[in-house]
Amino acid sequence: MIKANVPVVPGSDGLMKDVSEAKKSPKNWLSGHHKATAGGGGKGIRVARDEKELETGFRMTEQEAQTAFGNGGLYMEKFIENFRHIEIQIVGDSYGNVII
Q1: Region (Disordered) spans which residues (predicted)?
Q2: How far is CA 23 from CA 70, 75, 87, 96, 99, in A?
């Protein structure tokens, strides 16, 4: 998405190995949220507004994700208040046919 110049929410480049790695995130993400990579339906997401919430929330989210999805992997994104989530589905084949 970034290569195609589509605006995206800033976030980690893949999994965060542990809370110490999450703490190294840019400070403007500190009011961010960590999300389960295998998540869905609102499970495995927690907002951290300061370092203490990040520390306790990271461990809780990791545990919740492991229990719910069998995968405790987390990534981090900057948290945006009052946002709208818009998703589109795109299907394509090896012949160049695309349906949006």
Answers
A1: 24-45
A2: 24, 12, 29, 42, 41
DSSP letters for 41-76: TTEEEEEESSHHHHHHHHHHHHHHHHHHHS---EEE
Per-residue confidence (pLDDT) for residue 71, from 0 to 100: 92
Query: For the whole model, what pTM was predicted?
Result: 0.70
DSSP 11: B
Contact 22, 77 (CB under 8 A): no
Residues 6+ apart with CB under 8 A from 63: 72
User: What is the spatial distance between Cα 32 and Cα 58, in angstroms, rounded to a whole number?
Assistant: 11
3-state DSSP call for residue 35? Answer: strand
Q: Which two tokens stand for residue 82?
A: 């009052």
Domains delineated in the chain = 2-81 (3.30.1490.20)
Position 70 scores a pLDDT of 92
